[in-house]
Amino acid sequence: MKKIKKYLKKHLTKDRYHHTLGVASTAVAMAMRYNPDPSNSNFIKRAELAGLLHDCAKCMDNNKKLRICEKNNLSCSSFEKSHPYLLHGKVGAYIAQTKFKIEDNDILQAITWHTTGRPDMSLLEKIIFIADYIEPSRNPVPELNLIRQLAFVDIDKAMEKILSNTLKFLESKGNPIDKMTQTTYDSYVRTAVTVPYQSKALNC
Ligand code: DGI
Ligand code: FE
Ligand code: FE
Asked: N or C: which end of the chain has fewer CB within 10 A?
């Protein structure tokens, strides 16, 4: 952790470092809430590590990101090539693996997919995706405080809301949308529709 924090301090701007610490602590809180094995703290530690590393390549020059992808055969879509800032997850996972010897595939995937998401995300991937959006120093966006509560109540609903708001935001700015962002949103809407509505059966 010490070595990672030293690297982040050196390679990120002050605000980005502050955001990173916010994501790590928010991921810890969510991991405490959703820990699949409350008898140990392994999941919480892994969430902290993924949160710390998720933006480790964010401040890297775009050309350097593209060079790292090319040199190491990391696949890039043509959309990613023309919008290289979207590559900071993939390149970040590469740095986590090569520089910090992280071999935990779930952590590497959580870093890789934290910007666009993807269908069928693991619990850890969802936590990092959501923590990135709701951490305390995030600039206020519509419904942020509602989503902050939802994140601790219904993690898939929080995913759907974040993806829907991100798509609305990108559309309002006229920014082109990566196929994966749309695919992820579609998959969460489908999940929400196919889950049976149960409150009538609860008799309350
Ligand atoms: O790195 P962060 O700023 O902490 O957060 P992030 O990795 O989620 O990146 C957020 C930015 O990525 C935000 O400005 C929206 C943008 N983004 C997410 N999905 C897409 C996208 N930008 C484009 N053009 N297309 C997308 O599909
Ligand atoms: Fe990011
Ligand atoms: Fe981030």
From this structure: C
What spacing in Å lies between the alpha carbon of 86 and ligand 1's midpoint?
7
Whole-number Cα distances in Å, 188 to 47, 91, 122: 22, 26, 13
Residues 6+ apart with CB under 8 A from 92: 53, 54, 55, 56, 57, 58, 111, 112
Site to substitute for ligand 1 among 166, 167, 171, 177, most atoms within 8 A of C-beta: 166
Ligand 1 atom with the smallest distance to the CA of 116 is 19
The structure's pTM equals 0.93
Q: Residue 85 CA: which ligand 1 atom is closest?
A: 12
- For 159, list phi and psi in degrees, rounded to 5: -60, -50
Instruction: Note whether 58 and 8 are within 8 A (CB).
Output: no
